[in-house]
Amino acid sequence: MSELVAEEFVALGHSVKIVTMTPSMTGDDRPFEVVRRPSAAMLVDSVRWCDVYLQMNVNLRLAWPLVMVRRPWVVAIHAPLYSATGLARLLEFAKRASLRPAHVTAICEAMKRGTGRRTVIVPNPYRADIFRPIVGEPRINDLIFLGRLVPDKGAPVLLDALALLRKKALLPRLVIVGRGPEEAALRAQCARLRLEEQVVFSGYVPNEDVARLLNRSRIMVVPSVWEEGFGVVALQGIACGCVVVASHAGGLPEAVGPCGVTFPKGSAPALADRLAELLPDEAKLARLRTHAPDHLARHQPRAVAEAYLAVIEQARDREAGAWWRGGSSDRRSGRRA
């Protein structure tokens, strides 16, 4: 998300520097500077360099320089601040308390909970240059699952739903795209439920080939059993012409919008019922697909970047006259974030 938004900021004429605690895996051949695992001095210098400090999620390890170098602070909430327990709950309380001087956005209404203040909704973008309709691809797969094969993603719920559909004489073909520690258990579940002829494990697939697989599929299933922050995978499926059936959890209902349906989190019978309604009804699938253009419009990278820039401009205007800024500023372009 940071990369997509940063690319659009640069395209709109702004200078961008990304500070991150992650190591480089593929190099940093990007149109902006990336500062990885900064020292304290490097972090202070980066904050001093910018006009506005935008954080994708509140990160106190990277926010402390604001105590010494005052800058307008914009925080985008991507993960819930209300679900932790024990010591993690104390940390989330500290994060919520720290937001008081910040200008806060959230990627969806579900993530807005727990901020305790007025928060602007700025949704997540997706890679519209990759995930798009491909003319001439036949939709030969009934169902597709895309994600890491870990317990949170709920793939066992989907396989249990397939077994229930068999009792209704429905035998949809499912493609599972992704890798993870649960793959062996999922293959064993397929064998136990006698689903081997219906389910294909494709393993890891590059984004460009994922888009082709999505274009070959009728329905994307997102059966997450945890509170997804948003669910960009749903946008990817919608952009490629899939109707999405997703858990009613976290930000997933907002990611799906009018382009699919939801079911109670973790309920294989409910998922089977939704799929039984959709699989034989091509007319209903077509109607749900008609909502895709309007739904995707607000998730285009340029639209999301412009929404962030509106918040950034407001943050600068509100704080332009503060004593620590040395008076007002009339700069309206070329911001550094």
Characterization of the model:
The chain is α/β, with parallel strands linked by helices and 337 residues long. It has 2 domains: 2-125 and 300-325, Glycogen Phosphorylase B (Rossmann fold, 3-Layer(aba) Sandwich), CATH 3.40.50.2000; 141-297, Glycogen Phosphorylase B (Rossmann fold, 3-Layer(aba) Sandwich). The protein contains 14 helices and 12 strands. It has a 6-stranded parallel β-sheet, sandwiched between helices. It has a 4-stranded parallel β-sheet with strand order 3-4-5-6. Strands 1-2 form a two-stranded parallel sheet. α1 (2-11) packs across α14 (301-319) and α6 packs across α11 (268-278). It is elongated, with a radius of gyration of 22 Å. Residues 323-332 have low confidence and may be disordered.
SSE inventory with pairings:
Layout (H helix, E strand, L loop, with lengths): L1 H10 L5 E4 L12 E4 L3 H10 L3 E4 L3 H4 L9 E5 L8 H13 L4 E4 L2 H4 L7 E2 L19 E6 L8 H12 L7 E4 L5 H10 L6 E5 L3 H9 L1 E6 L9 H8 L3 E5 L4 H5 L3 E4 L4 H11 L3 H8 L2 H6 L3 H19 L18
Parallel strand pairs: 1-2, 3-4, 4-5, 5-6, 7-8, 7-10, 8-9, 10-11, 11-12
Helix pairs in contact: 1-14, 6-11
